[in-house]
Amino acid sequence: MAVYSYARVSTRRQADDGESLDVQQRIVAGYAQMHGLEIGRSFVERGVSGSVPLGERPEGSSLLAVLKPGDVVIAAKLDRMFRSAVDALENLDALKKAGVSLHLIDLGGDVTGNGIAKLVFTILSAVAEAERDRIRQRIADVKTDQKQRGRYLGGRRPFGWRPVDGKLVDDDAEQRAIKLMHKLFKTGLSLRAIAESVRATGVEISHEGVAKVLARKPGWKSTHLIDH
Length: 228
What we know:
Helix content: 40-55%
Radius of gyration: 29 Å
Shape: rod-shaped
Strand content: 5-15%
Number of strands: 7
Strand order of the largest sheet: 2-1-3-4-5
């Protein structure tokens, strides 16, 4: 069994001053001594934001790489290892399955194998789901705002427009093709025949694409962003 400690400060000033790291390491050392554990190696993260997932931090990834079943990791506080409940939940679950014990002193000790583990996992699961909901809502709000401002959201562009500097502008050739499609459709021409006529003008489109263009409601604009 190997015992490792982990400490982190988020700003370079804290890292240079060393006070925060020193406090964390003293707390961990005292805890290890009380429980008869001898720390074999310390992983110290300097000037790394907690928003960076543990596995993407220099020292965090190194720590995860050396862990083996039966090993113990000690950190002074939950937020030194994880800022996101999603990251915490995923890593705690992985450590538990790997047979690694994680001791978070501010939560009372071993959060992967003793009586408080179930409570910690339950709370983190609830917080993680709330985080996911907030992220989904934030993304939806941004997309709605961008859409209302006529911003191009990526993906397949609507036939008749082309992206320029993050916005959709009229594509003259395709706009003419759209008018031609409607004109030919009124004559009773089939979708395949309309598509062939449009392609003859140098604009590529399938009969399925013609059907989607013709299915657009009157007043349809590029901000509606439907695929073609």
